[in-house]
Amino acid sequence: MPTNLKTMILKNLVIALSVLMLAACASAPKGVRISNNGSSATTDKQGAAIRNLSSAEITQVVVGKSFQFTRSDSTGFVIYNADGTLDITDDKKGALKGKWSTTGDQYCETYASGAQECGVFK
Q1: Residue 87 DSSP one-character state
Q2: Cα separation, 77 vs 69, whole angstroms
Q3: Along the 122 residues of the chain, how does pLDDT read in single tens digits?
Q4: Nearest in space to 84 (alpha carbons), one of 108, 52, 50
Q5: Count of other CB atoms within 10 angstroms of residue 98
Q6: What's this model's pTM, rounded to 2 decimal places?
């Protein structure tokens, strides 16, 4: 068999295998795959419902943590201390203090001498 013919057959074989591999990739599942101990989770699984956190859960989530905030009048960072105080670094106003508390599923904050603001925490 001539060398040119062998080269042409080999090229065609490589092209055919490449096409088959691409076709296999195109039919693979798309999106996020969730596994449970190595087995694939089914698409009919539903996530947990969003719910209001309890006072104890809110405390566990925020104490000792630093969060970035964006409000209509300011932006910055806040640290939630275990004693119910807030250490705030406002991008415009600098260092500030505040207080936080929880009652049931209500989370409340007071900044400087402002009014207390409360709401649910999810």
Answers
A1: E
A2: 6
A3: 566 666 766 666 667 566 556 555 555 555 555 555 555 555 556 677 888 999 999 999 899 999 898 888 889 999 999 999 999 999 998 999 999 999 888 999 998 778 998 998 88
A4: 108
A5: 16
A6: 0.56
